[in-house]
Amino acid sequence: RKEVEQDPGPFNVPEGATVAFNCTYSNSASQSFFWYRQDCRKEPKLLMSVYSSGNEDGRFTAQLNRASQYISLLIRDSKLSDSATYLCVAQTGANNLFFGTGTRLTVIP
Amino acid sequence: DVKVTQSSRYLVKRTGEKVFLECVQDMDHENMFWYRQDPGLGLRLIYFSYDVKMKEKGDIPEGYSVSREKKERFSLILESASTNQTSMYLCASSLWQGGNTIYFGEGSWLTVV
């Protein structure tokens, strides 16, 4: 079983739509969680950290559910520029980061 | 601004060649990482270093070695390149404590023919 699992997609959504991704993690000792965004043939870049209380950054909302061991990312009012692959990350220690394989999102005009 | 620099962006090497991938970070980070990323497999950790001259094997260290002689520099070495090492290689760094953001370099695309 993979440490972190994501639906690879692709998710094809129209501009302005709301889209949500879930990610499950297997290690209950995971302490920190992140969402990264990766554009085609580019490096991953931090989108947002995920806090226990949930957090929001503009159109993006991240949630953590420790009981069910999943994190989620909600994107409201999708823009064409949101098209990318979204990676979730669970961390159990400084050097124990586990990346999901990514969920591909395409926002269609 | 945070910067992780991978000096070689695109390389084509022959089977059996020795390959060096260099990575430099300017943030005084203790931790440095080398990953490879392949379609459908995501990022897989090759090696990790938490201090100068210190290294730990990741999930797929076979066929690779690393060197960290200075805090800011972490090199990945393919002793004898093979075609199954064709991949995108990503260097990353972070502060020592867990929970800190990991920053990636732009990646090195290696093709072994």
Give a brief rundown of this model.
The complex is a heterodimer of chains A (109) and B (113). Chain A is mainly β. Chain A has no helices and 11 strands.
Produce the secondary structure layout:
The complex is a heterodimer of chains A (109) and B (113).
Chain A: E1 4-6, E2 11-14, E3 19-25, E4 32-38, E5 44-50, E6 55-57, E7 60-65, E8 70-75, E9 84-93, E10 96-99, E11 103-108
Parallel strand pairs in A: 2-11
Antiparallel strand pairs in A: 1-3, 3-8, 4-5, 4-9, 6-7, 7-8, 9-10, 9-11
Chain B: E1 4-6, E2 10-13, E3 19-21, E4 23-25, E5 31-38, E6 42-49, E7 56-57, E8 64-70, E9 73-78, E10 87-94, E11 103-104, E12 108-112
Parallel strand pairs in B: 2-12
Antiparallel strand pairs in B: 1-4, 3-9, 5-6, 5-10, 6-7, 8-9, 10-11, 10-12
Keyword list:
heterodimer; A: 109 residues; mainly beta; five-stranded antiparallel β-sheet; 11 strands; globular; B: 113 residues; seven-stranded mixed β-sheet; three-stranded antiparallel β-sheet
Structure description:
The complex is a heterodimer of chains A (109) and B (113). By secondary structure, chain A is mainly β. Helices cover 0% and strands 58% of the residues of chain A. Chain A is built from no helices and eleven strands. Chain A has strands spanning 4-6, 11-14, 19-25, 32-38, 44-50, 55-57, 60-65, 70-75, 84-93, 96-99, 103-108. In chain A, the strands form two sheets. In chain A, strands 2, 4, 5, 9, 10 and 11 form a six-stranded mixed β-sheet that branches. In chain A, β4 (32-38) and β5 (44-50) form a beta hairpin. The model of chain A has no long low-confidence stretch (mean pLDDT 93). Helix content of chain B is 0%, strand content 52%. In chain B, the strands form three sheets. In chain B, strands 2, 5, 6, 7, 10, 11 and 12 form a seven-stranded mixed β-sheet that branches. In chain B, strands 3-9-8 form a three-stranded antiparallel β-sheet, with no helix packed on it. Chain B has a two-stranded antiparallel ribbon with strand order 1-4. Chain B is globular. The A-B interface holds A 8, 31-32, 34, 41-46, 49, 87, 89, 91-97, 99-102 and B 31, 33, 40-43, 45, 48, 50, 56, 88, 90, 94, 96-107, 109.
